[in-house]
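Workshop exercise sheet. Pairs work together: one partner reads the sequence aloud, the other fills in the structure field after running the prediction. Swap roles for the next sheet.
Pair: D.N. / O.F.
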Amino acid sequence: MTTVSEMKNNIAAQLRGMARVDIGRVEMIAAGTDLKYLAHEEIARRRVMSRGQFIQSLTDAELAAVEAGRVDLAEIACQVCTEF
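Structure field:
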């Protein structure tokens, strides 16, 4: 697991790299008052993307069964989670 200190160092390294190319972008981030909100929105977007990527891996027949309610994908996922 990554510690908060490691995360801060990684983020600072990314910002330094960005600053070498465009300091204005880093200044815009530094002035940001909505960064927590943006982080929240990005987490939500990534969750949707992950679910969407899995849905794309299903066959047409499996998708049809999920759409029709004959297969409860969330229920199956919960069952699998209990196995780990």
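Discussion prompt: Residues 35-57 form the longest helix (23 residues). What would you look at next?
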